[in-house]
Specification:
Number of domains: 2
CATH architecture of the largest domain: Orthogonal Bundle
Order of helices and strands: HHEHHEEHH
Strand order of the largest sheet: 1-3-2
Strand content: 5-15%
Number of helices: 6
CATH topology of the largest domain: Arc Repressor Mutant, subunit A
CATH superfamily of the largest domain: Winged helix-like DNA-binding domain superfamily/Winged helix DNA-binding domain
Distance between the termini: 47 Å
CATH class of the largest domain: Mainly Alpha
Length: about 130
Amino acid sequence: MSKDVLELPLDVTATRPILEHIANKWTVLILSVLCTQPARFNDLKRRLDGITHKALSEALKRLERNGLVSRKVLPTQPIGVEYTITALGCSLREPFAALYNWSLANGSAMERAQRAYDTSRRDERLEEEI
């Protein structure tokens, strides 16, 4: 096998549950925001355009349970909660940065591929109707 090809053992049983927790869009985005500084719930919600209250709440609970985020109750009136990325969560910074950079570099290529695919599928359906 070529040295340019990354060889990885495929242990789906061991990796699937972990990847399901860290590879969803909200986890990546929440941890990316928290990598820069701790944030309160509403600040996260504002910065993560499109996330619902329920989705953010569930994601933060999941991240806290998995040891990627810590939650601190603030002695304010009304009581506030601040979320901070943990050392374990910070260890995802480099892989997430690589994914982010890849998406910036390749997003337009994916969009072109999607349009080409959609066009060819539409043409196939039209031919079937004729």
